[in-house]
Amino acid sequence: MEKTKIILDCDPGHDDAVAIMLAAREPSLELLGVSVVAGNQTLENTQRNARNVLQWLGANIPVYAGCDRPMVRDKVIAADIHGSTGLDGPVFPPLTKKLEPEHAVQFLIRSLLESEGDITVVTTGPMTNLAMAMRLEPRITEKIRRIVLMGGSFTNGNVTPAAEFNIIADAEAASVCFRSGRPITMVGLDVTRKALCYPEIVERMGRIGNRASNLFVALMGHFCKTQKQVFGWEGGPLHDPVTIAYLIDPEVLVTKPMNVQIDIRSTQSYGRTNCDYYGYQKLPPTADVAVDIDVARFWDIVETGLRRYSEA
Ligand code: BDR
Ligand code: CA
Q1: Which of 68-72, 186-190, 225-229, 252-256 has the lowest mean pLDDT?
Q2: At what angle do helices 211-231 and 295-307 cross, to 10 degrees?
Protein backbone atom coordinates (compact mmCIF):
# COMPACT_ATOMS: atom_id res chain seq x y z
CA MET A 1 0.00 0.00 0.00
CA GLU A 2 1.35 3.43 -0.90
CA LYS A 3 1.45 5.62 2.16
CA THR A 4 0.25 9.22 2.18
CA LYS A 5 3.12 11.40 3.35
CA ILE A 6 2.07 14.02 5.84
CA ILE A 7 3.51 16.73 8.03
CA LEU A 8 1.35 17.53 11.04
CA ASP A 9 1.59 21.18 12.02
CA CYS A 10 -0.10 21.62 15.39
CA ASP A 11 -0.36 23.38 18.75
CA PRO A 12 -1.00 20.61 21.32
CA GLY A 13 -3.62 20.98 22.78
CA HIS A 14 -5.72 17.99 23.85
CA ASP A 15 -7.36 17.35 20.49
CA ASP A 16 -4.04 17.92 18.68
CA ALA A 17 -2.57 15.22 20.91
CA VAL A 18 -5.23 12.75 19.74
CA ALA A 19 -4.49 13.73 16.13
CA ILE A 20 -0.81 12.91 16.77
CA MET A 21 -1.84 9.54 18.25
CA LEU A 22 -3.89 8.61 15.20
CA ALA A 23 -1.25 9.74 12.71
CA ALA A 24 1.87 8.28 14.32
CA ARG A 25 0.88 4.60 14.01
CA GLU A 26 -1.44 4.64 11.01
CA PRO A 27 -0.14 2.24 8.33
CA SER A 28 -1.64 4.22 5.44
CA LEU A 29 0.16 7.41 6.55
CA GLU A 30 3.82 8.32 6.75
CA LEU A 31 4.18 11.03 9.39
CA LEU A 32 7.38 12.82 8.35
CA GLY A 33 7.44 15.15 11.32
CA VAL A 34 5.44 17.15 13.79
CA SER A 35 5.92 20.89 13.46
CA VAL A 36 4.65 23.04 16.27
CA VAL A 37 3.32 26.57 16.55
CA ALA A 38 2.06 28.83 19.32
CA GLY A 39 -1.72 28.61 19.61
CA ASN A 40 -3.50 26.81 22.39
CA GLN A 41 -0.53 27.80 24.54
CA THR A 42 2.84 29.45 24.12
CA LEU A 43 5.34 27.76 21.81
CA GLU A 44 7.41 26.75 24.82
CA ASN A 45 4.42 24.75 26.07
CA THR A 46 3.13 23.40 22.76
CA GLN A 47 6.49 22.06 21.59
CA ARG A 48 7.05 20.39 24.97
CA ASN A 49 3.57 18.90 24.80
CA ALA A 50 4.23 17.43 21.36
CA ARG A 51 7.41 15.80 22.64
CA ASN A 52 5.68 14.49 25.75
CA VAL A 53 2.91 12.89 23.69
CA LEU A 54 5.30 11.24 21.22
CA GLN A 55 7.57 10.02 24.02
CA TRP A 56 4.55 8.57 25.86
CA LEU A 57 3.49 6.79 22.68
CA GLY A 58 7.01 5.51 21.99
CA ALA A 59 6.80 7.06 18.52
CA ASN A 60 10.09 8.05 16.95
CA ILE A 61 8.83 11.11 15.08
CA PRO A 62 10.89 14.33 14.99
CA VAL A 63 9.42 17.49 16.53
CA TYR A 64 10.26 20.96 15.20
CA ALA A 65 9.41 24.21 16.96
CA GLY A 66 8.16 26.99 14.73
CA CYS A 67 6.70 30.44 15.12
CA ASP A 68 6.03 31.76 18.60
CA ARG A 69 3.52 34.38 17.49
CA PRO A 70 1.15 35.20 14.62
CA MET A 71 2.40 36.92 11.45
CA VAL A 72 0.81 40.30 12.18
CA ARG A 73 -1.35 40.46 15.29
CA ASP A 74 -0.71 39.75 18.94
CA LYS A 75 -0.64 36.25 20.33
CA VAL A 76 -3.84 34.67 21.69
CA ILE A 77 -3.96 31.42 23.67
CA ALA A 78 -6.77 29.11 24.76
CA ALA A 79 -5.86 28.43 28.40
CA ASP A 80 -9.54 28.28 29.36
CA ILE A 81 -9.86 25.01 27.42
CA HIS A 82 -6.36 23.49 27.48
CA GLY A 83 -5.07 24.73 30.84
CA SER A 84 -1.85 26.45 31.90
CA THR A 85 0.39 23.86 30.22
CA GLY A 86 -1.77 23.51 27.11
CA LEU A 87 -2.14 19.82 27.95
CA ASP A 88 -3.44 19.74 31.50
CA GLY A 89 -4.59 16.36 32.78
CA PRO A 90 -1.99 13.65 32.11
CA VAL A 91 1.13 13.39 34.26
CA PHE A 92 4.05 12.73 31.95
CA PRO A 93 7.33 11.04 32.96
CA PRO A 94 10.56 13.08 32.75
CA LEU A 95 11.02 14.31 29.20
CA THR A 96 14.02 12.95 27.33
CA LYS A 97 12.82 13.33 23.75
CA LYS A 98 14.79 16.16 22.14
CA LEU A 99 13.54 18.98 19.99
CA GLU A 100 15.07 19.05 16.50
CA PRO A 101 17.49 21.97 16.03
CA GLU A 102 15.87 23.01 12.73
CA HIS A 103 13.10 25.64 12.80
CA ALA A 104 9.69 24.25 11.78
CA VAL A 105 9.44 26.72 8.90
CA GLN A 106 12.78 25.53 7.54
CA PHE A 107 11.70 21.92 8.04
CA LEU A 108 8.56 22.56 5.98
CA ILE A 109 10.60 24.30 3.26
CA ARG A 110 13.27 21.59 3.11
CA SER A 111 10.80 18.71 3.14
CA LEU A 112 8.61 20.22 0.46
CA LEU A 113 11.48 21.33 -1.80
CA GLU A 114 13.11 17.90 -1.62
CA SER A 115 9.79 16.12 -2.22
CA GLU A 116 8.18 14.96 -5.41
CA GLY A 117 5.13 17.04 -4.66
CA ASP A 118 3.61 14.24 -2.63
CA ILE A 119 3.39 15.75 0.85
CA THR A 120 0.07 16.69 2.42
CA VAL A 121 0.36 19.37 5.08
CA VAL A 122 -2.14 18.95 7.89
CA THR A 123 -2.61 21.96 10.14
CA THR A 124 -4.50 21.71 13.41
CA GLY A 125 -3.36 25.02 14.86
CA PRO A 126 -2.91 28.58 13.59
CA MET A 127 -1.48 28.41 10.05
CA THR A 128 1.53 30.63 10.81
CA ASN A 129 4.30 28.10 10.08
CA LEU A 130 2.94 27.12 6.68
CA ALA A 131 2.20 30.70 5.62
CA MET A 132 5.66 31.83 6.71
CA ALA A 133 7.22 28.94 4.78
CA MET A 134 5.35 29.96 1.61
CA ARG A 135 6.40 33.58 2.06
CA LEU A 136 10.04 32.69 2.73
CA GLU A 137 10.33 30.17 -0.11
CA PRO A 138 7.53 30.60 -2.67
CA ARG A 139 8.80 27.60 -4.68
CA ILE A 140 7.35 25.27 -2.07
CA THR A 141 3.80 26.29 -2.85
CA GLU A 142 3.45 24.16 -5.96
CA LYS A 143 5.07 21.26 -4.12
CA ILE A 144 2.25 21.02 -1.58
CA ARG A 145 0.01 18.16 -2.58
CA ARG A 146 -2.87 19.27 -0.39
CA ILE A 147 -3.54 21.28 2.74
CA VAL A 148 -5.96 19.66 5.17
CA LEU A 149 -6.79 21.97 8.02
CA MET A 150 -8.90 22.02 11.10
CA GLY A 151 -10.23 25.52 11.23
CA GLY A 152 -13.01 27.88 10.34
CA SER A 153 -16.71 27.39 9.98
CA PHE A 154 -19.36 28.20 7.42
CA THR A 155 -21.77 28.79 10.29
CA ASN A 156 -20.67 30.06 13.71
CA GLY A 157 -17.30 30.50 15.34
CA ASN A 158 -16.11 29.54 18.79
CA VAL A 159 -14.11 32.65 19.73
CA THR A 160 -16.48 35.20 18.27
CA PRO A 161 -19.81 34.57 16.53
CA ALA A 162 -17.85 34.81 13.28
CA ALA A 163 -14.49 33.21 13.93
CA GLU A 164 -13.01 29.90 14.93
CA PHE A 165 -9.87 29.78 17.11
CA ASN A 166 -7.23 28.51 14.62
CA ILE A 167 -8.24 31.12 12.05
CA ILE A 168 -8.70 34.12 14.34
CA ALA A 169 -5.40 33.29 16.08
CA ASP A 170 -3.63 34.12 12.81
CA ALA A 171 -6.12 35.16 10.15
CA GLU A 172 -3.41 36.71 7.97
CA ALA A 173 -1.61 33.36 7.84
CA ALA A 174 -4.85 31.56 7.02
CA SER A 175 -5.47 34.09 4.27
CA VAL A 176 -2.03 33.40 2.74
CA CYS A 177 -2.76 29.65 2.77
CA PHE A 178 -6.28 29.96 1.34
CA ARG A 179 -4.96 32.18 -1.46
CA SER A 180 -2.12 29.77 -2.29
CA GLY A 181 -4.04 28.09 -5.07
CA ARG A 182 -3.24 24.63 -3.67
CA PRO A 183 -5.97 22.06 -3.02
CA ILE A 184 -7.42 22.66 0.43
CA THR A 185 -9.76 20.61 2.57
CA MET A 186 -11.27 22.70 5.34
CA VAL A 187 -12.49 20.69 8.31
CA GLY A 188 -14.37 23.28 10.31
CA LEU A 189 -16.53 23.50 13.39
CA ASP A 190 -19.59 22.60 11.32
CA VAL A 191 -18.47 18.97 11.43
CA THR A 192 -16.07 18.81 14.38
CA ARG A 193 -18.81 20.01 16.73
CA LYS A 194 -20.61 16.77 15.94
CA ALA A 195 -17.62 14.68 17.08
CA LEU A 196 -18.57 15.03 20.74
CA CYS A 197 -16.59 12.91 23.14
CA TYR A 198 -19.35 11.86 25.52
CA PRO A 199 -18.49 9.90 28.71
CA GLU A 200 -19.49 6.63 27.01
CA ILE A 201 -16.88 7.28 24.30
CA VAL A 202 -14.21 7.89 26.94
CA GLU A 203 -15.24 4.60 28.62
CA ARG A 204 -15.17 2.76 25.28
CA MET A 205 -11.65 3.98 24.49
CA GLY A 206 -10.52 3.36 28.07
CA ARG A 207 -11.49 -0.31 27.78
CA ILE A 208 -8.73 -0.77 25.17
CA GLY A 209 -6.29 -0.50 28.06
CA ASN A 210 -3.04 0.34 26.29
CA ARG A 211 -0.72 3.38 26.60
CA ALA A 212 -2.58 5.35 23.91
CA SER A 213 -6.00 4.72 25.40
CA ASN A 214 -4.72 5.59 28.88
CA LEU A 215 -3.45 8.91 27.53
CA PHE A 216 -6.74 9.48 25.69
CA VAL A 217 -8.69 9.02 28.94
CA ALA A 218 -6.36 11.34 30.89
CA LEU A 219 -6.61 14.01 28.19
CA MET A 220 -10.37 13.82 27.85
CA GLY A 221 -10.82 14.09 31.63
CA HIS A 222 -9.55 17.66 31.48
CA PHE A 223 -10.81 18.58 28.00
CA CYS A 224 -14.41 17.48 28.55
CA LYS A 225 -14.55 19.29 31.88
CA THR A 226 -13.43 22.64 30.41
CA GLN A 227 -15.63 22.25 27.34
CA LYS A 228 -18.59 21.89 29.68
CA GLN A 229 -17.51 24.91 31.74
CA VAL A 230 -16.91 27.15 28.72
CA PHE A 231 -19.48 25.96 26.17
CA GLY A 232 -21.87 23.80 28.17
CA TRP A 233 -21.15 20.69 26.07
CA GLU A 234 -21.70 17.30 27.74
CA GLY A 235 -18.88 15.91 25.60
CA GLY A 236 -15.88 17.82 24.27
CA PRO A 237 -15.76 18.28 20.48
CA LEU A 238 -12.69 16.41 19.29
CA HIS A 239 -11.86 18.83 16.50
CA ASP A 240 -8.33 18.08 15.30
CA PRO A 241 -8.37 14.28 14.86
CA VAL A 242 -11.10 14.65 12.24
CA THR A 243 -8.40 15.80 9.78
CA ILE A 244 -6.41 12.60 10.28
CA ALA A 245 -9.55 10.44 10.25
CA TYR A 246 -10.41 11.99 6.88
CA LEU A 247 -6.99 11.10 5.46
CA ILE A 248 -7.36 7.55 6.75
CA ASP A 249 -10.89 7.18 5.41
CA PRO A 250 -12.25 10.02 3.23
CA GLU A 251 -15.75 8.53 3.52
CA VAL A 252 -15.95 9.88 7.05
CA LEU A 253 -16.69 13.37 5.70
CA VAL A 254 -18.95 14.85 3.08
CA THR A 255 -17.24 17.84 1.45
CA LYS A 256 -18.46 20.53 -0.90
CA PRO A 257 -16.28 22.77 -3.10
CA MET A 258 -16.70 26.43 -2.19
CA ASN A 259 -15.05 29.75 -2.67
CA VAL A 260 -13.60 30.54 0.76
CA GLN A 261 -12.06 33.82 1.76
CA ILE A 262 -10.67 34.83 5.11
CA ASP A 263 -11.87 38.08 6.58
CA ILE A 264 -8.77 39.98 7.67
CA ARG A 265 -10.27 43.46 7.41
CA SER A 266 -13.38 43.84 9.50
CA THR A 267 -13.46 44.30 13.24
CA GLN A 268 -16.54 42.33 14.19
CA SER A 269 -16.01 39.43 11.79
CA TYR A 270 -12.20 39.34 11.72
CA GLY A 271 -11.10 35.74 11.18
CA ARG A 272 -14.32 34.55 9.60
CA THR A 273 -13.99 31.94 6.86
CA ASN A 274 -16.46 33.38 4.36
CA CYS A 275 -17.69 30.28 2.54
CA ASP A 276 -19.87 30.80 -0.51
CA TYR A 277 -21.96 27.72 0.25
CA TYR A 278 -24.51 28.39 -2.49
CA GLY A 279 -22.02 29.71 -5.06
CA TYR A 280 -23.81 33.06 -5.29
CA GLN A 281 -20.64 34.88 -6.22
CA LYS A 282 -19.86 32.68 -9.24
CA LEU A 283 -16.23 32.59 -8.11
CA PRO A 284 -14.06 29.49 -8.52
CA PRO A 285 -14.00 27.14 -5.53
CA THR A 286 -10.87 27.49 -3.40
CA ALA A 287 -11.51 24.71 -0.89
CA ASP A 288 -13.41 21.51 -0.28
CA VAL A 289 -15.33 22.32 2.86
CA ALA A 290 -16.52 19.55 5.16
CA VAL A 291 -20.29 19.79 5.48
CA ASP A 292 -21.12 16.54 7.26
CA ILE A 293 -19.47 13.77 9.24
CA ASP A 294 -20.29 10.11 9.80
CA VAL A 295 -19.88 10.25 13.58
CA ALA A 296 -20.05 6.48 14.21
CA ARG A 297 -17.41 5.91 11.55
CA PHE A 298 -15.23 8.59 13.11
CA TRP A 299 -15.25 6.91 16.53
CA ASP A 300 -14.49 3.57 14.89
CA ILE A 301 -11.43 5.15 13.26
CA VAL A 302 -10.33 6.59 16.60
CA GLU A 303 -10.75 3.21 18.30
CA THR A 304 -8.81 1.41 15.57
CA GLY A 305 -6.10 4.06 15.84
CA LEU A 306 -5.74 3.63 19.58
CA ARG A 307 -5.78 -0.18 19.29
CA ARG A 308 -2.74 0.00 17.01
CA TYR A 309 -0.67 0.74 20.11
CA SER A 310 -1.47 -2.77 21.42
CA GLU A 311 0.43 -4.19 18.43
CA ALA A 312 4.15 -4.88 18.78
C1 BDR B 1 -9.31 24.42 17.50
O2 BDR B 1 -8.84 25.33 18.48
C3 BDR B 1 -8.00 24.67 19.39
O4 BDR B 1 -8.30 25.05 20.70
C5 BDR B 1 -8.18 23.19 19.15
O6 BDR B 1 -6.97 22.51 19.39
C7 BDR B 1 -8.61 23.11 17.72
O8 BDR B 1 -7.50 23.03 16.86
C9 BDR B 1 -10.82 24.36 17.58
O10 BDR B 1 -11.39 25.62 17.36
CA1 CA C 1 -5.29 22.57 17.70
Answers
A1: 225-229
A2: 140
Distance 283 CA to ligand 2 centre (A): 30
Ligand 1 contact, 193 CB (< 6 A): no
Using a cut of 0.85, tell me whether the model's pTM lies above it: yes
Pocket of ligand 1 contains residue 166 by CB under 6 Å: yes
Please state, in angstroms and rounded to a whole number, the distance separating the CA atoms of residues 111 and 37.
17
Neighbour count for residue 304 (Cβ, 10 Å): 14
Is the Cβ atom of 237 under 6 angstroms away from ligand 1?
no
Exactly one of 9, 11, 88, 170 is catalytic; name it. 11
Pure H helices in 269-308: 295-307
Q: State yes or no: cis peptide before 13, omega within 30 of 0.
A: yes
DSSP of 187-210, one letter per residue? E-HHHHTT-EE-HHHHHHHHTT-S
